[in-house]
From TrEMBL:
This is GST N-terminal domain-containing protein. PANTHER family: GLUTATHIONE S-TRANSFERASE OMEGA, PTHR43968. It holds the Pfam family GST_C_7. CDD domains: GST_C_family, GST_N_etherase_LigE. GO terms for cellular component: cytoplasm. InterPro entries: Glutathione-S-Trfase_C_sf, Glutathione_S-Trfase_N, GST_Omega/HSP26, GST_UstS-like_C, Thioredoxin-like_sf. Residues 7-98 form the GST N-terminal domain.
Length: 248
């Protein structure tokens, strides 16, 4: 069985982290059995070292950075960190399951993810990350999250990233335009990035939308606004991925 490592939070057993959502969607889409191990932020590095996961980056001080999502597949003895590498591994190791990267789409999906990361993510992250410690994290993770995310973004505190009230409408409009640029890559009425079938690119978008939903709530004005954009494209997407949202 596969073990998926995810971040714990105030709501037990409720995922919220967008990066881990990518892998959770991927596992559910493929129909692969797995279990979730929930970790507080300070426990990630010790656990990753224990299971033999490779660091995925470096901290501001140059030391190795260990992150999740990470999976351990006991059928092969393989440990992999990073959602893209995990998706590629799952496609290769379980070829009879639905493909996250259908033949001929790898380069296209890579370009799409680059566009997503450069254009949309820097805008939308400000509406997620600032309130994560207060709204989603347990006390044991708050100090770690504040310290390391402040270093990551080069700010004294996460409050420096907060969008001022008077600028919120303008910033949300930028987010809408960025989503619009992604939507423009498809025909009207499409749900999936690749047209008629889900792919990893869809789970990249859905993961950020899931994080926004966790942060703002499904009854919020912010969520209602996003779901109305671009002819309901993102509402269709979230309805379509609901079947891949199980928490095992």
């Amino acid at each position: 069985m596969i073990t998926l490592y995810d971040f714990d939070g105030k709501a037990k057993g409720v995922p919220w982290n967008p990066n881990v959502w990518k892998t959770r969607y991927s596992l559910n889409y493929k129909g692969l059995p797995y279990k979730t191990v929930w970790l507080e932020y300070p426990d990630v590095e010790p656990m990753m070292k224990k299971i033999g996961a490779a660091p995925t980056s470096k901290k501001a001080d140059g030391s190795p950075l260990y992150t999740i999502p990470t999976i351990y597949d006991d059928s092969t003895g393989t440990v992999i960190a990073d959602s893209v590498l995990i998706a590629e591994y799952l496609d290769e190791t379980y070829p009879s399951t639905p493909k996250l990267f259908p033949p001929g789409t790898h380069a296209l999906q890579g370009a799409f993810q680059q566009l997503f990361s450069s254009m949309l993510l820097p805008l939308v992250i400000k509406f997620i990350i600032v309130d994560v410690p207060l709204m989603l994290l347990n006390p044991g993770s708050v100090e770690y999250f504040n310290k390391h995310r402040s270093e990551q973004f080069g700010v004294p505190t996460l409050e420096a990233l907060r969008v001022p009230p008077e600028a919120k409408d303008a910033e949300w409009h930028k987010v809408k335009d960025a989503f619009g640029a992604l939507n423009a890559l498809n025909k009207d009425g499409d749900t999936w990035v690749m047209g008629d079938t889900p792919s990893f690119a869809d789970f990249v978008i859905a993961s950020v939308l899931a994080a926004l939903k966790s942060m703002h709530g499904k009854e919020s004005a912010e969520w209602t606004r996003i779901m109305s954009w671009h002819g309901g494209r993102w509402e269709r997407l979230m309805m379509a991925v609901e079947k891949y949202s199980a928490v095992l």
